[in-house]
UniProtKB/TrEMBL annotation:
Residues 473-550 form the Acyl-CoA oxidase/dehydrogenase middle domain. Residues 6-86, 357-468 form the Acyl-CoA dehydrogenase/oxidase N-terminal domain. Belongs to the acyl-CoA dehydrogenase family. Its cofactor is FAD. Keywords: FAD, Flavoprotein. Residues 201-322, 599-726 form the Acyl-CoA dehydrogenase/oxidase C-terminal domain. It comes from the Bacteria. This is Acyl-CoA dehydrogenase. Gene3D superfamilies: Acyl-CoA dehydrogenase/oxidase, N-terminal domain, Butyryl-CoA Dehydrogenase, subunit A, domain 2, Butyryl-CoA Dehydrogenase, subunit A, domain 3. The keyword Flavoprotein applies. Pfam families: Acyl-CoA_dh_1, Acyl-CoA_dh_M, Acyl-CoA_dh_N. It comes from Novosphingobium album (ex Liu et al. 2023).
């Protein structure tokens, strides 16, 4: 897996970024607006850096760089509100190099002396079209039935008009102008169609750059502006929407990356990935700039602040192609109706989401182990919660040293490379065996290994590692919820150990576990996060009472009571009053995952049900509205995957981590919840049933999803973490 650019790409991106910072500053953008939205000097400067030659074939005098290289330029162009039809010119230059005469016009375009744009619709059926850059373009490349033509636009026909974002937009009657045929037949039409797909990717990633910069401006303002005596960035009503949008905007870029990687890999989803990236970025950027402007309050409405420029341009860029929702319909047809897309050549792609051969080998090993040893009766018990704990499977994995693939070799028993560990956990889920019991046991084992006494390491740790003991977590209390540091369960010195008194809520698995990892208050006279200590408490100890609490999710959790429970000091973890430090590693483990695996299973169940349900005489999956909603869930699934991949990659490669784990968990849980509702609606009334099969599974997903935004840290807690670490906003939690 790799999210890094090559050294050459880093250098190229930095070069364009520095140039655009100076030559496409908001001062320059405002000046260009005064003269129609085009900056000739900027255009010439981009040409000097080779921008317009990037995608032109070498045989035609270009560099023939990849889609990814051009996308890096477009992201910076979006960030700096580039004044000119750059995406269109990149496509036009490539088309002239592919099917044109490769003559003077291409040379002038590459040199920045001419502007050439593209028409997004067939002029044979729609001769009058809105053309990006039409007020400054001396030529437009268009499809005209079975031919691709170059339409010459005389100066008299370049009539710009006031428009939403003050860009050089013009409505042109292409059919009334002189046209030269560049090519005819399947090859020429395929090149043009691929160019339109390429344009979608450029606009999408440009919008991601624009949205990211708008969020940056909003966050900086929220750190400067005070209201009611506080910086407004401390208000969750300000910070949390920005945190949500940071996930969406980062995801817009990653969806473009995925689409380019899919093209490189010749994946069957490549065409749909382009459509989804364009739709997603159009929507996410529009919402990001609007929320950015809202953060500025009334000042955002004034022309003195730059945020309004982002608001107008982010909304305007994609609309030259019409309603962006049409791209979601297109994605639905490409996913579910067999519509083919003609794809551009990708060139080299450094980004890779494959976990590698060692990961593939361990997945194969786990699949073989389950196939050979796990009976249908065992599989019947599988469930996403602790209710799915099957002792035989737990012990089987321990014996094969696969129970704790995420732990170091001295604990797990074998050296499993980092990406193979990720693949192993995914393989369990693909086999339907969700492992909260093993996940918690592994977390406790790591804490004991790092912070436990020799007695704990000798008596408790081997039992956990060998699969003979389970552990639960005693963090939450009836009055604290996600604010675990508000714990009031007391641990007071008594003899050679400690007496524990109090109550813990949602102690899932306590009815099955041998031990609980407990957070207690040992000092009530200091700030709440400084007076905490952690212990391992045997659940069979006198004074422990476990009372079941049942949820509508078909799972049991527990409330546990501790009345004069005595444990020796050797069962303490870390220093007295040092519980926050001891707990931090465990919390980080909890915040590192997402729910894309179950979203994928839910999507497949919905697809199956849509094939079974007949509506108006045909399967539901043949209806446009069903395809659109399934495509939207696909987009959310891919987004969840990409955010999780980034979090995993950053962790493995020791990269700076700006709350990537919380972003993954928060985004995927929220989309799991919203999509489970929507797919239940889509397949109603069949989805009401708990019958075995896709209907029952969708029903379960709706009930399951409700808890995912709460446990492991609520979405509100994660939004605060994203705001603080991803946008540098001030702390919003006490």
């Amino acid at each position: 897996m790799n999210f890094d650019l090559t050294d050459e790409q880093e250098m190229m991106r930095d070069t364009f970024a520095r140039f655009l910072d100076e030559n496409s500053s908001t001062v320059r953008v405002r000046k260009a607006i005064e003269t129609g939205g085009f900056d000739p000097a900027l255009w010439s400067g981009l040409a000097e850096l080779g921008a317009f030659a990037m995608r032109v074939p070498e045989a035609a005098g270009g560099m023939e760089l990849g889609l990814f290289d051009a996308a890096l330029l477009m992201e910076e162009a979006g960030r700096t509100l580039v004044s000119g039809p750059l995406a269109e010119a990149l496509v036009a230059a490539r088309l002239l190099g592919q099917i044109g005469e490769q003559g003077e016009l291409l040379e002038r375009l590459i040199a920045g002396e001419a502007v050439v744009s593209i028409a997004l619709r067939d002029m044979a059926t729609q001769p009058v079209q809105w053309i990006a850059g039409g007020s400054v373009a001396e030529a437009v490349i268009a499809r005209n039935g079975d031919a691709v033509v170059l339409v010459t636009v005389p100066e008299a026909a370049r009539r710009g008009e006031d428009n939403l974002a003050s860009t050089p937009l013009a409505e042109i009657d292409l059919g009334a102008l002189e046209a030269t045929t560049l090519g005819t037949g399947a090859e020429a039409l395929a090149a043009f169609a691929a160019g339109i797909e390429e344009w979608k990717l450029y606009i999408a990633i440009g919008l991601s750059g624009m949205g990211r910069q708008a969020l940056k401006l909003a966050a900086e303002y929220a750190c400067e502006r005070k209201a009611f005596g506080q910086f407004i960035g401390t208000f969750q009503g300000i910070s949390h929407p920005l945190a949500d949008l940071l996930c969406d905007i980062d995801g817009a870029k990653f969806l473009v990356w995925k689409a380019i990687r899919d093209i490189f890999d010749d994946a069957p989803t490549a065409g749909a990935a382009i459509s989804i990236a364009f739709w997603w970025a159009s929507d996410a950027a529009a919402r990001a700039v609007a929320q950015g402007l809202h953060t500025f309050g009334g000042y955002g409405l004034t022309t003195e602040y730059d945020i309004h420029l982002y608001n107008l341009r982010a909304k305007a860029w994609p609309l030259v192609a019409g309603d962006p929702v049409l791209s979601l319909e297109e994605a639905g047809r490409r996913l579910y109706a067999g519509e083919a897309a003609t794809l551009p050549a990708s060139g080299d792609v450094p980004i890779d989401f494959d976990l590698g051969p060692e990961a593939a080998a361990i997945v194969q090993e786990i699949n073989a182990l389950f196939d050979a040893n796990v009976t249908p009766e065992m599989r019947e018990k599988f469930h996403y919660s602790w209710e799915g704990y099957v002792p035989e499977v737990h012990k089987l994995l321990a014996e094969n040293k696969l129970l704790f693939p995420g732990l170091p070799e001295e604990l797990s028993g074998r050296n499993i490379p980092a990406y193979a560990k990720i693949a192993a956990l995914g393989a369990f889920e693909q086999n339907g065996y969700n492992t909260p019991a093993a996940n918690v046991a592994g977390m406790v084992a790591m804490i004991i290994h790092k912070c436990g006494s020799e007695e704990l390491k000798a008596e408790v740790l081997p039992r956990i590692i060998n699969g003979d003991a389970l552990c639960s977590l005693g963090y939450t209390e009836p009055g604290s919820g996600s604010d675990v540091f508000a714990a009031q369960t007391k641990a007071t010195p008594e003899g050679n150990g400690w007496r524990i008194d109090g109550t813990k809520m949602f102690t899932s698995g306590a009815n099955l576990a041998d031990y609980v990892l407990m957070l207690t208050r040992t000092n009530p006279d200091v700030p709440k996060h400084k007076g905490l200590t952690m212990f391992i408490v045997p659940l069979k100890t006198e004074g422990v009472t476990i009372q079941p609490v049942y949820t509508f999710q078909d799972e049991r959790t527990n409330i546990t009571f501790y009345d004069g429970v005595h444990i020796p000091d050797s069962w303490r973890l870390g220093d007295v009053d040092g519980g926050v430090k001891t707990m931090s590693a465990a919390l980080e483990l909890e915040h590192g995952g997402g729910f894309s695996k179950v979203i994928k299973q839910m999507l497949h169940a919905a697809e199956d049900l849509c094939r079974e349900i007949v509506a108006d005489g045909k399967p539901l999956i043949e209806h446009t509205q069903a395809q659109v909603r399934l495509a939207r869930t696909t987009a959310n699934l891919w987004m969840s995957d990409m955010l999780t991949y980034r979090a995993q990659w950053a962790s493995v490669e020791k990269k700076p981590n700006h709350a990537f784990g919380p972003m993954s968990k928060m985004f995927s849980s929220e989309k799991f919840l919203s999509d489970s509702r929507d797919l239940l609606d889509l397949t109603a009334p069949v989805s009401l049933s708990k019958r075995t099969g896709p209907a029952g599974f969708l029903n379960q997903c709706y009930r399951h999803a409700a808890g995912t935004t709460i446990y492991g840290g609520s979405s509100e807690v994660h939004r605060s973490m994203v705001a603080e670490r991803g946008l540098n906003l001030p702390r919003t939690r006490a």
